[in-house]
Design goal:
With 108 residues, this protein is of the alpha+beta class. The chain has a domain at 16-54 and 61-96. The chain has helices at residues 2-9, 22-26, 33-36, 39-50, 92-96, and strands spanning 67-71, 77-82.
């Protein structure tokens, strides 16, 4: 599934896998079948399919909840967002408001 995602997104950044989910637990991410399959989520999937997104079926652990993290070059977590359900993601405009002093190396 990771290789399919890399091909679909055409990303060229380093991609790390964690089949034992050590990082998942270390970052305090959760698992919940109840929150993963409540009506709000079904409506979100329906909305995406109406807009042309393809349903790929259930892949992997359908109860696994995600998160988004920004970590600087010193290993300091500058942003941590733990999703409460699969549709819960941080807003891009909030991420863009992060301080400019995060010491990232810009892409070359």
């Amino acid at each position: 599934m990771a290789q399919a995602w890399i091909e679909e997104t055409q990303t060229d950044f380093q991609f790390l896998l964690d089949p034992e989910r050590r990082a998942y637990r270390a970052y305090g991410l959760q698992r919940s079948l109840l929150r993963s399959w409540r009506p709000k989520i079904w409506f979100e999937y329906a909305r995406l399919m109406i807009r042309g997104r393809k349903w790929r079926g259930i892949q992997g652990d359908s109860g696994q909840l995600g998160g988004d993290f920004i970590i600087d070059q010193s290993g300091i977590i500058r942003m941590a967002y733990r999703s409460i359900d699969p549709a819960d993601r941080p807003r891009i405009n909030e991420i863009l408001k992060l301080p400019d002093d995060i010491n990232f190396d810009p892409p070359r």
